[in-house]
Specification:
Elements (H helix, E strand, L loop, with lengths): L3 E12 L2 E12 L3 E5 L6 H9 L4 E10 L2 E2 L5 H6 L2 E4 L6 E5 H13 L5 H14 L10 E2 L5 H15 L3 E5 L7 H15 L5 E5 L13 E6 L2 E6 L2 H9 L2 H5 L1
Parallel strand pairs: 3-10, 3-11, 6-9, 9-10
Antiparallel strand pairs: 1-2, 1-4, 4-5, 7-8, 11-12
Helix pairs in contact: 3-5, 5-6
Bound molecules: adenosine-5'-diphosphate and magnesium ion.
Amino acid sequence: MAEQLLSINGLCVNVEEKPILHGVNLNIKKGETHVLMGPNGAGKSTLGYALMGNPKYEITSGIIQFNGKDLIEQSADERAKDGIFLSFQNPLEVPGISLSNFIRNALEQRSRKRIRLWDFQKEMKKAMEVLQMDPSYADRELNVGFSGGEKKKSEILQLLMLKPSLAILDETDSGLDVDAVRTVSRGVQEYQKNRKGALLVITHSTGILESLPVDFVHVLVDGTIVASGNRSLIDEINTHGFESFMKS
Ligand SMILES: Nc1ncnc2c1ncn2[C@@H]1O[C@H](COP(=O)(O)OP(=O)(O)O)[C@@H](O)[C@H]1O
Ligand SMILES: [Mg+2]
């Protein structure tokens, strides 16, 4: 049996004094793929930010364990070094550092040793090919002037290069055209291929999930998980929407 990676128990989170999550329970084992769905404003992004350690999202009660350690005690920086990755709904533009240097710095900080440029560049080239990104993007300032689709690709490139043990993808597919969804999805499949890293995919649409093996689906409504199941839950949501979950 696979080992437990993330274990969330009774998680309550306030944003600006307002309770948003009311007792979320979620368990993710190594290599598993979980999908989190739910209506707008349910608290899906809040869960992602709370896991990443964004100080705006105040944990008022509950326990989060990651790799057997208390996650709440760790800073956002430590969490990233420990292998949690969050792809933002709106990736930030970071002037002054190139995409390539950003990724290399993150890798070197995590492993605490220098990475051979040749190996790094070879791997970067391969990952960029999967994502159909022009190699010139490696030298451009991180996300600066990137289109919406390019920003999402840059996030998935980071995912492929950093190989986190848990990747949270928050609506990585939103606002993308069908071809871009397919490319991004190919990148996610590549990350998931050897089942080394776990995935928590937050999404509204199912395009990104089409060719992705999914182990569990959860429905978040009003800050609590109201249903969990297998892939068939996605079809149920596609047919009936979230209404039936909201009444119960
Ligand atoms: N930084 C923030 N400042 C104020 N309110 C926030 C912030 N982040 C989230 N919220 C509020 O928390 C609720 C849940 O939001 P969010 O987690 O973004 O939902 P979802 O991602 O499911 O659409 C919403 O009512 C939203 O307005
Ligand atoms: Mg959101």
